[in-house]
Every structure is written in C-alpha cells, then in structure tokens.
Amino acid sequence: MTVLQLCPLLPSLETALTTHHRTVRLFEQPEGYLAEHGGEFRAAITSARVGVPDEVMDALPHLEAIVHFGVGYETTDVGRARARGIDVSNTPDVLTDCVADLAVGGLIDVMRRLTAADRFVRRGDWTTTAYPLATKVSGKKIGILGLGRIGRAIATRLSGFGVELSYHSRRPVDGVPYRYVDSPVALAAEADALVVAVAGGENTRGLVSADVLTALGPDGFLVNVSRGSVVDEPALVVALTDGKLAGAALDVFAEEPEVPAPLLDLDSVLLLPHIASATTETREAMGELAFRNLHHFLTEGSLLTPVP
Fold it and tell me: Where does the signal peptide begin and end (predicted)?
C-alpha cells in the first residue's frame, strides 16, 4: 500500500517509511502529480506545520488516514477529514516534557533578563555600567492559559518555585490543586506572568487579545509555547514597544519564520525559532510514534493516537 509523504520529515522516520512501505514524496513530484495518481493512496503522513491542505485532501479519493508528526494538527481540516471517514492522528505526550521545560526556561529568562544580560556582557557594557535590576520569579502569581497535558506539566515544574498558580481552560480540570479563573482577561489581570499552552486552530485564534495584554499590564510577562495564531500579534508588538508589557518569551509567531521587525531590537523579548520540542530525544520519540501510528493503521486498520 502506498503512503503519501507531504513534506520532509525526521531522517529516521523517513528511513522507517521507505523500509516498510512504498512511500511517495509529494514535494519531489511534478505539478499535477495527484491528478493522475491521487487514487493510489490510503494514508498520508505530514508534519504539524504543513498538515494536509484541503486541495490535497480532495485529490485523494481513497484516503483513509492522516498521520501528523507533531502534537498540533490545526493545519489539517479535521472536520473535513472526518466527514469523509478519514482518521487523523498526532503525537501527544512524547513532547510534553520538553515543551514544559522550555516554557519554564523562557519565563525565567525573560523575567531575570538572562539572554539580555549575556548580550550586555558581550557588548562590553559591563566595563562601564552596572546591569539593571530584573524581576524575581519565585513567589510570583503565574497564570496558565490551557491546562492540558503541557499546561499541567508546566504547572508541576513551576510549583517548585513557590509560585501562586491559577489557570483558565475551556472548562475546569478535575483533580488539580490550581485555582480556575473563568476568562483569559480575568486570569491575566491577576497574574504577574501569563503562560500560553492552549492548542492552536480557529477555536483559539486571537485568544490572547489586546484586552488580555492590557489586563496583564506594564509589569506583566507573556510566555507563548502554543501557536502564534493564539496571540493578537500586532497588539503584542504595540504593547511591547510602548512599554505596556514588561516582556515576553516567544517560541511561536503568526507567520513563521517571519518575526515582527520591531521585536528584533527589544532586550525585553526572548525570540526563539519554534524549538520547544526540538531535542534529539523528543523528536526521535515523535518520529517513532508517528511511524507506529501509520504502520498500525496499514497493518491493523486503526491509529494508536487519534486526535480527540
């Protein structure tokens, strides 16, 4: 059975694909390839960033499964897929620890101004002046927007800093010791820092609005390890450049790899190239799970980690 690969993937995953299944790399095929060959594919594998565009899905009349390398799947219209009886999977859990680690690291960095201090030393400024004071992390009020797997892992790590944790999700989460707040604005209003860990997609687009940023205020910090679409990026740029927000640690952006130019010169902002899950261990685990999903579907007829 033939597998359609929509984009370059982890080398070890590509090796497993070509070893065990006939795999066609769509990105290496001539224009119009699917018009002639689209009926040959029962399964497609892609990255969370690329997904399966509607026009590709429509060109695959016998498609039965879409496997994503990554926890996100908002780049694929899951409703459209399900309406056609196409199963969809992602790679949850295996990247939770690394994303949570980076979220905490980003929070510490931007509040203590670590990378800004590194630049200060490298420029030679320490020889002429003292570095300005930063903000303490321990004991602060931290709001977590999205208390799913990653949000809970972030909360667990931050608990060791003696912070006061609260959260907002679509609904209260059973069995957690953190206080639920009923809106993102209310959560931001009482937080010293807001950590964003919700899923991407249309349901959360612009969830961190100008009102949320205003509520967070000029002494507040934002950390985003979710998706760039979750934050009103123009409003965030204004808040940071006008001093209406103390700082931000951003691993994701609205139009990656493009980063808003006004942010590039701000020492109050940590800019990262979407690396929350980018460790060798985690990416290999993601690749292994993506392959197991695909292989299990082609041999047993079902996916191991279908999207909820």
Answer: none
